[in-house]
Design brief:
N-(1-d-carboxylethyl)-l-norvaline Dehydrogenase, domain 2, three-stranded mixed β-sheet
Length: 291
């Protein structure tokens, strides 16, 4: 293998497409597959080869990066790719799969002779497009092919120890996402309360400006809400609901009660039921009002 590994990207939604594009821009040979081919086809303009099947995408690949909806989806797609997987290929699992699903993915990797990396990422559309994601990685940290992928898509790689199968990176991802969701629901409720009480939201931002209560997320997600621009999706609401459920399930399995986490997952569900599932997760704001 050269210092420019061949990479197959399976899943080209908001994040996967940006990652595939940055891999190609870094000079790596990239193939891509998506269940809906039309979402992958724009990548051809960046030099990415578009495949009709997962098996076609992974043929001769040094590394396979999966960026799919959840753990079961990643396992299903890799099973489709199995006939063409090369023993010794690196499987970089970047789906937010949760703790339990990682064990199933690692087992599949072992059965097919793959070097497994549990490597979910932190970031949304903008940092993904800029190649500024944070990669949370568990697996062999001296692997040249995997590090070439991480360097192309991220600004920082945080190694959590373990062999990938331990799920340490996925556990850290759930912890980080729990904080992201608290901030998202928090600003949504603050702005909903301001509207209900007839308070100009600009007064709220004036109060927190420059102080310890100020937060970049309050500006970003609040801006989408106030601008009526939650359809400009950076982190999809339905995906956030799935992640929120994984967080709650993991907490319960470890005897931890998350009152805010459970309420947040329900807010995402209500907003989705109102028709906001395909919008940015900031649309949880709408859950504060009657359906």
């Amino acid at each position: 293998m050269s210092d420019k590994p061949t990479v197959a990207v399976l899943g080209t939604g908001i994040m996967g497409a940006a990652m595939a594009r940055n891999l190609a821009r870094a000079g790596l040979e990239v193939s891509a597959w998506n269940r809906s081919r039309d979402k992958a086809e724009p990548l051809a303009a960046d030099g990415v080869r578009i495949a009709d099947t997962p098996a076609e995408a992974v043929a001769d690949a040094d590394a396979v990066l999966t960026m799919l909806h959840d753990g079961p989806a990643a396992l299903d797609v890799m099973r489709q790719a199995a006939p063409a997987l090369r023993p010794g290929a690196r499987w970089i699992q970047s789906t937010t799969a949760g703790v339990e699903a990682v064990a199933d993915l690692a087992t599949f990797a072992g059965e097919h002779g793959l070097v497994f990396f549990d490597a979910p990422i932190l970031g949304t559309r903008e940092p993904a497009e800029a190649g500024m994601l944070t990669v949370l990685a568990s697996g062999p940290n001296d692997d040249a092919a995997a590090n070439a992928v991480f360097d192309a898509v991220g600004a920082k790689t945080v190694w959590t120890g373990g062999d990938g199968a331990d799920g340490s990176a996925s556990r850290l991802k759930l912890v980080a996402n729990s904080w992201v969701f608290v901030l998202t629901h928090g600003i949504g409720e603050v702005l909903a309360l301001a509207e209900g009480l007839g308070v100009d939201p600009r007064r709220f931002y004036e109060v927190i400006d420059g102080g310890p209560l100020d937060a970049g997320y309050a500006r970003v997600k609040g801006g989408l809400i106030l601008g009526g621009d939650t359809a400009n999706t950076s982190f999809g609401l339905d995906t956030a609901e799935k992640d929120a459920r994984l967080i709650v399930e993991a907490a319960r399995a470890n005897s931890v009660r998350l009152d805010l986490g459970e309420a947040g997952a329900e807010r995402f569900r209500r907003a989705s039921a109102q028709g906001h599932g395909g919008e940015d997760m900031a649309a949880s704001y709408f859950a504060s009002f009657n359906e």
